[in-house]
Amino acid sequence: MVCNNADLQLPSRNNRNGPQELKPVPCVTYSDAQMLRETCATPILKQVRNDFTRYRYGDEQHLDEALKRIFQFVLGGGIPRRNAPILQMIREEVTEDGKYCLVLVFEAKALELSDFEKRQAKFASFFGPGISAEVGEFSLSYT
């Protein structure tokens, strides 16, 4: 494992008058995936990974704008905002065919797997051309 944000400590700026602090999500990276990221990951995937693994200020949650578009909060056919999935962690892996893979693990207590499956194409398009997205159900203990 290469990346572990658990010991990253920055001073908290979370107060009533200041911006909302959004902590980094845990990241599990294996050395073969790290090497592939450097040479094969798209600029968008690199940026997304970097955004998840650092402190952010002013955002309500990671991927907030993308999730609004993908799940169409409060729009026809969408879901209530209170049911929005929450990013819990990311993993960098190498697929069986040797490609770099960024896995996003969400907690989505109020959603079914089918809610993600019918939006699979929207997830893929968010990450740019040439990127595929797969949806599956995983236990956090899998990590």
TrEMBL record:
Stretches for region Disordered: 1-21
Biological source species: Hibiscus syriacus (Rose of Sharon)
Lineage: Eukaryota, Viridiplantae, Streptophyta, Embryophyta, Tracheophyta
Family matches, as PANTHER family: ACCLIMATION OF PHOTOSYNTHESIS TO ENVIRONMENT (PTHR35551:SF1), PTHR35551
Protein name: Leucine-rich repeat containing protein
InterPro entries, sorted: DUF2854 (IPR021275)
